Amino acid sequence: MNPFLRVAARQLASDLRGLPTRVARGEAFAGRAARCISIADLRALAQRTLPRSVFDYVDGAANDERTLAWNRRDLAALELRPRVLVDVSQIDLSTVAVGIPIGVPVIGAPTGLSGLVHPDGEVGLARAFHAAGSIYVLSASSSCSIEEVARLASGPTWLQLYMWRDRGFVKELLERARAAGHLAVVLTVDVPRSSRRERDIRNGFGVPPRITLRNVRDAVARPRWTTRFLRTPRIELANAANRLGADGAASMVRFVDSQFDPAVTWQAVSWLREQWTGRLLIKGILTAEDASRAVGLGIDGIIVSNHGGRQLDEARSSISALPEIAAAAAGQAEIYLDGGVRKGGDILKAIALGARACLVGRAALYGLAAGGGAGASRAIEILTAELQTAMALAGCASVGDLDESWIVRPSTGTAL
Ligand SMILES: Cc1cc2nc3c(=O)[nH]c(=O)nc-3n(C[C@H](O)[C@H](O)[C@H](O)COP(=O)(O)O)c2cc1C
Fold it and tell me: Torsion angle, CA of 248/124/281/404, rounded to 10 degrees?
């Protein structure tokens, strides 16, 4: 036999011998995520694993999904100005986020109802970010409660909330966050009302989900997800359990609908600043004017974000907003960015343009879908390894040394 074929046959035979053990241990699932080498691979695996309506809930955005695309387009359009003959034998990715030292500049963005993607849910995500030496931001609309996450994931966690109409509920959440040892609160300000997500509307995705023939067919075609979901149906607002009626999902819809308050203004930020004496960040700012107002109210951090394109479609990309916001806040508040981060190089670019670190939403959720908590870890590992390599090849040994001189806009060929 040809020697190459002999080696291949031997390898195949050994893989097949090990298969039953791997399947029995459940390694096949996590193993598939482990074999992914990019966030795009994890996304493809998530698409094969999740029913269409759940994948679209994660992957989709508002209206024509232009902002979703612009986030990626504008990050990709920036080119790097590498330096050579620099000692890059040690790359330092560590930084400090509102006083908390972190090992990697990649923070877990708040994503509601993550338990729908995989029963590991927010606990799995939190553990993954903590294991990487970073912070997880827990959405108040999570499917695992503040207390459950605090009990099962021991690293630094921030609580994200909206300025709900029921201020008693906001106060209760702050109290619970304090008791759970949360180190900061993130107020999301880009949801005065819900947006239109066409994929969700077409799929009948909502709470309660609309049971259609296609949804049933989809669920049957994804037995792995469906079995797990039937065993552990995590489709609840765990933090609001005490406020919901006995009719479960329907009362959850009523609760959410009744709580978003389109009349909320900057006064609410002052109110929150008084209620929460710890670190306070504001998420969803896209202009220098709003950044200045936030700074004036004593905000510790600004997350430049368009909600991953899920709110105002046609809003500018977050990377395009970053330089003016970094200039407006100039040393008075820390700046973070999310939206479209899928490569380590994206993080390098955001930090060079003034961000302290990036938050990632979908990248971690694709990982969670592909392999539970281990899959989310794989996503962080991929981003971190890519960032390490990009830093070394760009000739920068520490994220603290990055500045805009590393960035060039191809249209002008000049540094920003
Ligand atoms: C499925 C999903 C649910 C989300 N839920 C929330 C939420 O509850 N609160 C919030 O402030 N942002 C939420 N976001 C927005 C993320 O925090 C973040 O801004 C966005 O995902 C960043 O873009 P990226 O997904 O391209 O990384 C959600 C995003 C996704 C994908």
Answer: -140
The list of the chain residues with pLDDT below 50 reads: 413
Mutate to test the pocket of ligand 1, among 307, 318, 382 (most ligand atoms within 8 A of CB): 307
Q: Where are the alpha helices (DSSP H) in 276-361?
A: 288-296, 318-329, 344-352
Nearest 5°: phi and psi at 411?
-65, -35
Q: 342 CB less than 6 Å from ligand 1? A: no
Ligand 1: nearest atom to the Cα of 283: 11
- Residue 304 CA to residue 292 CA, distance in Å, equals 13
Q: How far is CA 17 from CA 4, 9, 13, 30, in A?
A: 20, 12, 6, 19
Instruction: Give start and end residues of each alpha helix (H) in 80-222.
Output: 121-131, 146-152, 167-179, 198-203, 213-221
Per-residue pLDDT at 247: 63
**pTM to 2 decimal places:** 0.93
Residue 308 CA to ligand 1 centre (angstroms) = 6
Please tell me the predicted confidence (pLDDT) of residue 77.
96
* Ligand 1 mean position, distance from CA 111 (Å): 5
In 3D, which of 80, 54, 14 has the Cα closest to residue 353?
Answer: 80
pLDDT for residue 302: 98
Is residue 123 within 8 A of residue 374, CB to CB? The reply is: no
- Tell me the per-residue pLDDT of 27-58, one tens digit each, with 9 for 90 and over: 566 789 999 999 999 999 999 999 999 999 99
Q: Cα(239)–Cα(227) distance, rounded to whole angstroms? A: 25
